[in-house]
Each structure stands twice: as structure tokens, then as C-alpha cells.
Design brief:
The protein folds into three domains: about 160 residues, Heat Shock Protein 90, CATH 3.30.565.10; about 160 residues, OB fold (Dihydrolipoamide Acetyltransferase, E2P) (Beta Barrel), CATH 2.40.50.180; about 140 residues, OB fold (Dihydrolipoamide Acetyltransferase, E2P). Helix content is about 20%, strand content about 35%. The chain contains 13 helices and 27 strands. The C terminus is likely disordered.
Length: about 475
């Protein structure tokens, strides 16, 4: 399958990337996609799927080669890297999977059992990377066990014409590549979409999922304080496996004032005034701006105004935003454990537990009398719906006396985790882990143990807990 066949690229660049792309396609077919019998046994269609996609993004052309095969065997890559002396065994054991996959680009590195006429022609991934980097491009890959592999090649353009979304923030205008823009969400203070705070980070709830947001004025230092949370427009963008929102000027309540002394914030501003679509010519920027890493180029609009193009990847790096899982039938573990921050709680029995912040929708307190027993389950009403409530100790198999009086602290999980509420005695903190997770130190309902704030903390195994959570009373 081919997407973006109309994407234009200079002929000299096409000649430079032709051989690397040919190798990537051959490699995906030969090593990525499994034989029909193996795919059928894994519950996949017998026919494999290979997607070749090209699009303009941030002044670059991005070319993706994606297959729905078995994915890259990370442990095999780890073992091969140790065997070749590229890294010692102790360091390899704690190296993140995404860093392990980078060994694929080492000269002569391969985990294939045998060389075939389809992909084995003396050209490895190291040659692909070398050829792409020779023209100023980059290569990266992501792989999901059992789901497939995606290789992204990005080639810079010295001059390109791309559709862009021009947004207004404070007194400045900026451009975002339209290919990365998903939708615009107008913030409203009357019960509509709004910015929420979770773990000290700003998020917006979009169709049941939490998306981190960045206030552009605060990020760029355009105002002494951030824009009001009750107004504005959130531009939802997606870059690779990341989705986040950029808050710019937007919807205001009230009619425009005819008094020129009235502050601009008191004027009615619509989403279309805050953001508009344009076709822009991308031009390189000076070294002083380029080294900041948050601008990918500049352009001159029809009215003569100079506008900088935001580098969305640079914003991701600067804000250190967590990746969002791919939509589909991925395991809950993939969906809820892609985070560096954890909500630390204490159960009624005194056990110290942690829950990935990405899996938490809200933190609430209820009076114990608000809990209702129905069909052997405990429920609490939240809005128009009931949320099942389970005790953390019962999930962990610990018998603890229930607190009949007082309030109940509830950790409400999102829909991927069953939408249940976990009752705990106390919410302690939100913090990052101080050590790697040790799965060997586990227990029923516990995925492993690590240190948070220097104290041993048990990580809830949401994959194991969610299917059976509704059976606890």
C-alpha cells in the first residue's frame, strides 16, 4: 500500500535515497512479515501488509516503511550486541528497548538466521543510515513485538512548499505543518473542553483520553504568565508516537468592544482568527535560531509578515512529553506503562503501591456512605454513570479491615484499564522511579518492585488486575 505518492522531492535526492528505500522494503518483506502459516497461527491475516508512506513535515520529507510482521526481536538484538562486544552484559540488561534497537545500525549487524536473495545483498542498515545521513537526513525505527516495525527516513529540504496552520499567540504568529495537525479544540469555561491538572502537568481530555498540552506563550516566554485556562484554542498535533496539544489564542466569551482601550483579552476571538490555513514556502533560518532546536524554518506570509515554523520534535524534546500508544488491540501493558511518572499511594493495610500516571483519569474523594453495593460489587456515582470501586488491598490479596467512616480516596483509571476506581487510604506523591523495575520481586497483582523516593514501592500489574477487577466486592 502506498500513501503520499504525490509528495514531491528533488531528483538528486531521489537518486540518493532510492537504494536505501529499496533495501528497507526488501528487508520488511523478507525479515519482517512472517510466513502465511505463522501469521494465521498468530491470529493475523495470511497476507502481510506493507505500507510505504511519504509526506511533508516541518520542512522535511518523511518516508515511512511500515510492516505488520513479527517486529524486531529485541532480546536477540541485545544478545548479539553483547556477543559482538558492543556493550557489556550488565549495561545491556538495563538498556531501554528503544536504545537496544539502535544496534541494528552498527556495521555488519544482523539477527537473521540466513542471508537470502531478497534482502541479503551486502547492504545492511548501517549503509542505509550512512547514505541518508550523507544528504543531511535521519533514520529511526520503532518496533512492537507481534505488531510490526516502522522505519522513518527524514530528508531535509532547502526549499519546499507545504500547507501549514498559522496560529496566533500573544502578538506573534507561528506556523505548524498541517500534516501533523489533527484538530482544533476551543476551550470553554461553561462545562466544555478545559485544561486539567494531573501530577503537576497540564492535560486536556479528548474523547476519553488524556492528552498533554503545552502553553505556547509560556513555553516561548511571550507573556509574564500563561494564558487563561478558560479560553484559547488547543491545536492537537501528532508526531510519530507522540500526541500533544499546543495552546494558542482562541475563543473568548462576550462581544467585541468598540473601545480601543479595552484589553485584547476582553475581545471576542474565534478559533479561525487564532489559526488559519496557508500554503507557505519554507526557508532556512540562521544558526542562532536553528541551534535553539524549536524552529525548523521560516516563511514570509502574503501580508509581508515573517513567521517562524515550529519544530514539533524540538518541543517534544524540550518538554520531555511521554509517547502515546498506538491505537488498536495492543496489550494494556503497552498502553499504560509508557511513562516515567507514577502515582504513589498507601493502601489501608499499609502497602506502598504505584500506578502509572498515564493510566489515571482523576483523583477523587468520596464519603464512605456514598458507596453503594449492587450485585456483590461496590459502586460510586460520578456524574451520570456509576464507577466500580475496588479496594487496593483486595486486588493484592491482602485482607484488611475496611474503614467504615470518613472519606475514601479514589484513583480512577481510564477506559483502557476498565474504568474502575481503586480505593486507597492515602495518595502520597507523584514521582519518577529511582531504580529499574525488578519483576522478580513480585506478588499477586504486582508487576515488580522499584524505588521511588528511595523507598521500595510495588507497581500494580494493571494487565492482571483489570480483567478480574469487576469480580471484587
Amino acid at each position: 500500500m502506498i500513501d503520499g505518492a504525490d509528495t514531491e522531492l528533488d531528483r538528486t535526492l531521489i537518486e540518493s535515497i532510492r537504494d536505501p528505500l529499496t533495501h528497507l522494503v526488501r528487508n520488511a518483506v523478507d525479515h519482517g512479515i512472517e510466513p502465511p502459516a505463522v501469521r494465521e497461527a498468530a491470529g493475523k491475516p495470511r497476507t502481510g501488509r506493507l505500507l510505504l508512506r511519504a509526506f511533508h513535515e516541518s520542512g522535511q520529507v518523511t518516508i515511512e516503511v511500515q510492516d505488520d510482521g513479527a517486529g524486531i526481536p529485541v532480546e536477540a538484538v541485545r544478545a548479539k550486541a553483547v556477543a559482538r562486544g558492543l556493550i557489556d552484559a550488565a549495561a545491556a540488561a538495563v538498556l531501554p528497548d528503544e536504545r537496544v534497537l539502535q544496534f541494528i545500525f552498527e556495521p555488519g549487524f544482523s539477527t537473521a538466521a540466513q542471508v537470502t536473495s531478497v534482502s541479503g545483498r551486502g547492504v545492511g542498515m548501517d549503509v542505509v543510515k550512512t547514505n541518508i545521513e550523507a544528504i543531511g537526513g535521519t533514520v529511526d525505527l520503532s518496533s512492537y513485538p507481534g505488531l510490526g516495525t516502522t522505519v522513518r527516513v527524514r530528508v531535509p529540504l532547502t526549499l519546499a512548499i507545504i500547507p501549514a496552520l498559522v496560529v496566533r499567540c500573544a502578538t506573534e504568529r507561528f506556523a505548524l505543518p498541517q500534516a501533523a495537525v489533527g484538530e482544533l479544540v476551543s476551550l470553554r469555561a461553561d462545562g466544555g473542553p478545559r485544561i486539567e491538572g494531573l501530577a503537576g502537568a497540564d492535560v486536556i481530555r479528548v474523547r476519553g483520553r488524556l492528552v498533554p498540552v503545552v502553553f505556547l506563550d509560556e513555553f516561548l516566554g511571550l507573556r509574564p504568565t500563561t494564558a487563561a485556562r478558560e479560553n484559547g484554542t488547543v491545536v492537537l498535533v501528532r508526531v510519530d508516537d507522540h500526541e500533544f496539544g499546543i495552546v494558542v489564542d482562541g475563543t473568548q466569551t462576550g462581544a467585541p468592544s468598540g473601545d480601543p482601550s479595552t484589553p485584547r483579552a476582553a475581545h471576542a476571538v474565534t478559533s479561525m482568527e487564532a489559526a488559519s490555513l496557508s500554503t507557505i514556502v519554507v526557508k532556512p533560518i540562521g544558526s542562532l535560531l536553528a541551534q535553539m532546536g524549536i524552529y525548523s524554518g521560516g516563511t514570509v506570509l502574503g501580508d509581508g509578515g515573517v513567521v517562524l515554523i515550529l519544530d514539533l520534535r524540538g518541543i517534544l524534546r524540550a518538554k520531555d512529553l511521554p509517547p502515546q500508544p498506538r491505537r488498536g488491540d495492543e496489550a494494556v501493558a503497552t498502553a499504560v506503562c509508557v511513562t516515567d511518572n507514577y502515582l504513589v499511594c498507601r493502601t489501608i493495610a499499609g502497602r506502598r503501591i504505584a500506578v502509572p500516571v498515564d493510566a489515571v483519569v482523576r483523583l477523587e474523594k468520596f464519603d464512605g456512605q456514598e458507596l453503594q453495593a449492587v450485585g456483590g460489587k461496590r459502586l460510586v456515582r460520578r456524574g451520570d454513570l456509576f464507577t466500580p470501586v475496588v479496594d487496593a488491598d483486595m486486588l493484592l490479596g491482602t485482607q484488611a479491615a475496611q474503614e467504615d467512616a470518613g472519606s475514601v480516596s479514589l484513583v480512577v483509571l481510564d477506559g483502557r484499564c476498565g474504568g474502575i476506581g481503586i480505593a486507597v487510604r492515602q495518595i502520597l506523591d507523584v514521582a519518577a522511579a529511582d531504580s529499574i523495575l525488578q519483576p522478580s520481586i513480585a506478588a499477586p497483582g504486582v508487576a515488580g518492585t522499584f524505588a521511588i523516593g528511595g523507598i521500595a514501592t510495588e507497581l500494580l500489574d494493571l494487565v492482571a488486575l483489570v480483567p478480574t477487577a469487576g469480580s471484587h466486592s
